[in-house]
Amino acid sequence: MWLLTALLLWVLAGAQADLTKAVITLQPPWVSVFQEENITLWCEGPHLPGNSSTRWFLNGTAFQTLTPRYRIAAASVSDTGEYRCQTGLSVPSDPVRLEIHRDWLLLQVQSRVFTEGEPLTLRCHGWKNKPVYNVVFYQNDKAFKFSPQNSEFTILKTSLSHNGIYHCSGMGRHRYTSPGVSITVKELFLAPVLKASLSLPLLEGHLVNLSCETKLLLQRPGLQLYFSFYTGSKTLMSRNTSSGYQILTAKREDSGLYWCEATTEDGSIVKRSPELELQVLGLQTPTPVWFHILFYLAVGMVFLVDTILCMIIHKELQKQKQWNLEISLGSGPKKNVTSYLQEDRYLEEELKCQEPEQLQERIHQKSLEGGQQ
Ligand SMILES: *[C@@H]1O[C@H](CO)[C@@H](O)[C@H](O)[C@H]1NC(C)=O
Ligand SMILES: *[C@@H]1O[C@H](CO)[C@@H](O)[C@H](O)[C@H]1NC(C)=O
Ligand SMILES: *[C@@H]1O[C@H](CO)[C@@H](O)[C@H](O)[C@H]1NC(C)=O
Ligand SMILES: *[C@@H]1O[C@H](CO)[C@@H](O)[C@H](O)[C@H]1NC(C)=O
Ligand SMILES: *[C@@H]1O[C@H](CO)[C@@H](O)[C@H](O)[C@H]1NC(C)=O
């Protein structure tokens, strides 16, 4: 017996850890109805085995009913209030505020609070279900939709711009106007911002991490965001769970405007980042091929001319040396001969490093001097 109790407690404790929230659904789905209309509340949530007992609360106080279905027949003002429910293995549901009205016209909605991306249906409903024509829907007293026949209008994807107070007017026997309903649209995540891992501008050849940064504002179990990266008309990465994209080696052609998108799995919310300008600088300015070819040709020519001139001058010098020697041996003093020879040798040394033009000049002068003497 003791063991059985312990086992039961352990099972209960285990279940407690992942208790889900019960959920109330309405039938018909509207959170406000006219007096004398019928409405049924359903409670969904996990039950204890063999016990479908459900607890209901109105304005925080439990009341008798133990079935998952709570029916209000011919609603009265006293049924107005905040309803919650709880099943055996759930925590109490979020409250549903039910309003019972006495009027000619009623703007009905399925909920007063939405998460962006969810649809919002507005129903301009007449007392005793009387048909209503030429319906006008208003947001913050500004008409935004005229509907001659249909008294229902659906905003397919709500966004923050749909926050406000709504009402409707329509023709029955007269033109009637409904009371206002306050609608709140909550943001699920912030619009992303695209960031680069390196400060801009960047140099060619570097690795760049781009990240699509956003922030979740509401807790949603199992919520998964998907990220896409774009540049120009190109998609770099499409719908990936990773919020990062790598440019392995940045090239000058990678320069341009980049942006990213964050979306929910069903695509009901798509948010785009502002553009980020990526500028990739080259390491050096490239020179055209023809420039290289011309440059090496010119260097080659200079070298060739240089060599030929050198050979010619060398031969000339050899001849001159012999000639000088013959003259001085014949008539001049010995001192002169040695000095000439020394100068010539000096000239030959210089030949190795002098510019051809300068050399030519020097040699020309020398030979003139030699001739004069
Ligand atoms: C509410 O339900 C009852 C039957 O339970 C029905 O007779 C009555 O017409 C319904 N009222 C409305 C407004 O639909
Ligand atoms: C529940 O509270 C609302 C105000 O929050 C009140 O108008 C309503 O009468 C209450 N309902 C009951 C049954 O006490
Ligand atoms: C079902 O569970 C509730 C508590 O959630 C309890 O009060 C009730 O006695 C249980 N009924 C049965 C038949 O076990
Ligand atoms: C880029 O991201 C990778 C991992 O995704 C990381 O290893 C690397 O250090 C990052 N580089 C820079 C420059 O931030
Ligand atoms: C998502 O990104 C990761 C790394 O950034 C990559 O390995 C993976 O292949 C991508 N998946 C798809 C479907 O593109």
UniProtKB/TrEMBL annotation:
GO cellular component: external side of plasma membrane
Residue intervals passing through the bilayer: 289-313
Domain Ig-like as annotated: residue spans: 22-86, 95-184, 192-277
SMART domains with a match to the protein in the record: IG, IGc2
Keyword Nucleotide-binding: no
GO terms assigned for molecular function: high-affinity IgG receptor activity; IgG binding
Annotated Pfam families: ig, Ig_2
GO BP, one annotated term: antibody-dependent cellular cytotoxicity
Subcellular location as annotated: Cell membrane
Principal location listed in the UniProt entry: membrane
CDD domains to which the protein is assigned, alphabetical: Ig1_FcgammaR_like (cd05752), Ig2_FcgammaR_like (cd05753)
Signal sequence range: 1-17
UniProt keywords, alphabetically: Cell membrane, Disulfide bond, Glycoprotein, IgG-binding protein, Immunity, Immunoglobulin domain, Innate immunity, Membrane, Phosphoprotein, Repeat, Signal, Transmembrane, Transmembrane helix
Keyword Signal: yes
InterPro entries in alphabetical order: Ig-like_dom, Ig-like_dom_sf, Ig-like_fold, Ig_Fc_receptor, Ig_sub, Ig_sub2, Immunoglobulin_dom
Subunit and interaction comment: Forms a heterooligomeric complex with ITAM-containing signaling subunits FCER1G. Interacts (via transmembrane domain) with signaling subunits; this interaction is a prerequisite for receptor complex expression on the cell surface and intracellular signal transduction. Binds the Fc region of antigen-complexed IgG.
Entry's family note: Belongs to the immunoglobulin superfamily. FCGR1 family.
Name this protein carries in UniProt: High affinity immunoglobulin gamma Fc receptor I
Organism: Panthera leo
Lineage start: Eukaryota, Metazoa, Chordata, Craniata, Vertebrata
Gene name for this UniProt entry: FCGR1A
